[in-house]
Every structure is written in structure tokens, then in C-alpha cells.
Amino acid sequence: RCLASCQCQSCPQSEGKGLLGQAQDKVLNPPITFVIDTTKSVKPDKDSIFNLTSKVVKGIQNDHINIPRYMLVSFNDFGPEINLNVRIEIDTPDVEAFGSATAGLVFESYNGGRD
After folding, report:
1. CA–CA gap between residue 30 and residue 18 (Å, rounded)
2. Distance CA 52, CA 55 (A)
């Protein structure tokens, strides 16, 4: 989140428009990405992960924070090929869809697991 001394308020991408059409109330924040380990070894901590990510999403919604895009990336141990182990779960401008995708993650190991 930007600080009061931040120059984002005069950033050309913010276009000087606020959430309600007022110049002073809109700061263009960067996109947000969660990268989450979904291996079986993390499964005991999944409730903590869900609670934390849920609080972040609710905070964004409640405070009407201007974030243009949300991305959720998961990684696991499918095998030695990196492109099999990393998955973009969602890339969206919709914070609710982002929150739902995060809450729907499954924590398991595959092929015997190597974690």
C-alpha cells in the first residue's frame, strides 16, 4: 500500500481519478500475487494459509484498495520438470474470484512426493 508521501497519486497510470471519480482518493497499487506451496508437507498448515489469505482478500475488499490484477500460483512436486510443478491457478481482475481460487487449493503430493 502506498504511503502519503508516495508519488503514485500523480502517476500517469492513475489518471488522476479516484474510486468515486475524485482525484485524491485513488492510488494505483501494483498487482498482487500469492505463490503457495501445495505439497503434502504443508497440509498441516493449510488452515493458517487459508486464514491469512482470506484476511488479505477481505481487507482489500473492505478498504476498497485499487489493485488491478490478482494472480495465484501454486507449486508442488509432480516431477523434475519445473513446468509441471508450477501452475497459474488464476490471473484475474476479480478479487472475489481470486479469494475463491485461493480457498479451493488442494494440498497433496503426487508420484510418491519428494518434499
Report:
1. 16
2. 5
